[in-house]
Write a structure and sequence with these properties.
The chain has 422 residues and is α+β, with helices and mostly antiparallel strands. It has two domains: 3-86 and 109-187 and 376-420, FAD/NAD(P)-binding domain; 190-372, no CATH class. It contains nine helices and 21 strands. The chain binds flavin-adenine dinucleotide. Flavin-adenine dinucleotide is lined by residues 9-15, 34-37, 40-44, 46-49, 57, 139-140, 166-171, 174, 225, 234, 236, 245, 247, 395-397, 403-404, 407.
């Protein structure tokens, strides 16, 4: 078959959300879902923690609570989350309020990287059983929306009536090309820049009570994507630089590696005459990799406080008593992180240390860059994330979500738009 009613690029949660909604609402539709990987490569595979409370993962410029809650109800039906228990929430909230920090109460579930592949395989099998064509390991290289076709690496030209583009954050360059080639206007003015913190579980014991606590600090800084148990910091590879991220394996109840990692991110809203927030993020990431000899940087809090760089030779001595889980380059974050960003991140870490004393232990590692590559937001022409006649752009790459559940919800919303305009 080389013509489909709907072609979906990307089999992450955004693509899956669209595919399920379309085929369940109209089983007669012919649908093709493609992914360049053998299994979707974003957060559904990595760690797979799911947040079910607005506004976590839902950019408020596109989502009202009412709209998000409606969609979350459907997301739950597909992902069947086991909501984790929480303890001592009020205590932490009171401590946070005293220093003008907010800790929000979220319904969360966690699958773990080792188990999430089975969840994904099950979801894909369900789609195939319902009649969706799924082609993995096939990269979409070009889209022509005038004639309505896509060119891929491994299949012949494929024609569509409607196209859903959901390539995730890693696909941000692809998304940009599609926008440029098809005259889609975009807003390019927001960047999330930050560090990933890795420390001993005993220095951040809140995770025993709350898997992924979301703290909101002054100056648009927030904690994000906390992993514990068998937690690892990883390198996320882009064309000519790496950034850091984190995930963990499923809970085996044995305490795991007794480490925790989480991101501290600052959202920067850029104003005229900035040319490209996305390119700014790329430059920042490249600078850090340049200083780190092609790797991200890492520095112990003890060294940072003493105003000296971390070195390979000093990295594991004395109080620095756990090995980093990520192969990064010991160095000086001060050379790479813009000073305003570093100031706000450090101020937030100090506040966090008053709420959960321990995080500023000298052994705590700060990795950089943790930058979110979803800077370029298409200008949507309707509430269903339509960007041009017959094209919808959704998920983290397009900025309609910041997490699995928001991405899935974006897919449902785009599907609803397609169903209305059939
Ligand atoms: C290491 C890591 C851990 C994370 N952990 C979490 C977490 O625990 N919880 C959470 O909520 N979020 C997490 N996230 C964020 C999460 O990835 C996203 O919020 C979510 O996956 C976004 O969904 P998406 O469908 O937009 O994109 P993705 O899940 O990234 O899916 C996009 C898919 O499109 C494919 N693709 C891209 N370009 C093309 C192309 N040209 N042709 C064909 N296919 C293409 C990609 O291979 C990919 O599989 C994590 C991200 C990373 C990188």
């Amino acid at each position: 078959m080389n013509k489909y009613d709907v072609v979906i690029v990307g089999s992450g949660p955004a693509g899956l959300g669209a595919a399920f909604q379309l085929i369940e609402q109209d089983p007669n539709l012919s649908i093709l879902m493609l992914d360049q990987e053998k299994i979707c490569s974003g957060g559904l595979l990595n760690d797979c923690k799911q947040n079910y409370t607005y506004p976590v993962g839902f950019p408020t410029e596109y989502w009202s609570k009412e709209e998000a809650d409606k969609m979350l109800h459907i997301v739950r039906k597909h992902l069947n989350p086991k909501i984790l228990p929480k303890a001592n929430l009020e205590l932490y909230q009171q401590r946070a309020e005293k220093v003008k920090v907010t800790l929000i109460n979220i319904d969360q579930a966690h699958v773990g990287t080792d188990k999430s592949k089975y969840l994904i395989q099950d979801l894909v099998t369900q789609l195939i059983d319902k009649g969706v064509d799924v082609k993995l390991n096939v990269k979409v290289e070009f889209i022509n929306n005038e004639v309505k076709y896509i060119d891929t690496t491994k299949m012949n030209r494929i024609y569509y009536d409607k196209l859903v583009v959901a390539p995730g954050r890693k696909g941000f360059t692809f998304l940009q090309e599609v926008m440029n080639e098809n005259g889609v206007k975009y807003i390019d003015n927001t960047v999330d820049v930050g560090i990933r913190i890795e420390t001993r579980l005993e220095n951040y014991p809140i995770v025993k009570d709350f898997y992924d606590p979301k703290f909101y600090f002054p100056n648009n800084v927030r904690t994000f994507c906390t992993n514990s148990g068998r937690a690892l910091v990883t390198r996320e590879k882009y064309k000519d630089f790496d950034i850091v991220n984190g995930h963990s394996l499923s809970d085996k109840g044995d305490g795991g590696n007794k480490l925790v990692n989480f991101a501290m991110l600052k959202t920067i809203g850029l104003k005229d005459p900035v040319r490209s927030g996305q390119q700014m993020a790329v430059h920042l990431a490249r600078l850090a990799n340049e200083i780190g000899g092609g790797k991200p940087l890492m520095q112990r809090v003890g060294d940072f406080r003493a105003g000296k760089r971390s070195k390979q030779s000093t990295f594991n001595e004395d109080l620095n008593d756990f090995k980093p889980t990520c192969p990064a380059c010991p160095g000086d974050l001060g050379l790479a992180v813009p000073s305003k960003v570093m100031r706000d991140l450090w101020a937030s870490m100090k506040l966090l240390d008053t709420i959960i004393p321990g995080i500023l232990h000298p052994s705590t590692i700060m990795y950089y860059p943790e930058i979110k590559m979803y800077a370029n937001k298409p200008q949507f022409i309707d509430k269903y994330f339509k960007v041009a006649e017959n094209i919808y752009m959704i998920g983290d790459g397009a900025g309609t979500s910041r997490g699995i559940t928001g991405a899935w919800a974006s897919g449902i919303r785009a599907a609803n738009g397609i169903l209305l305009n059939k």
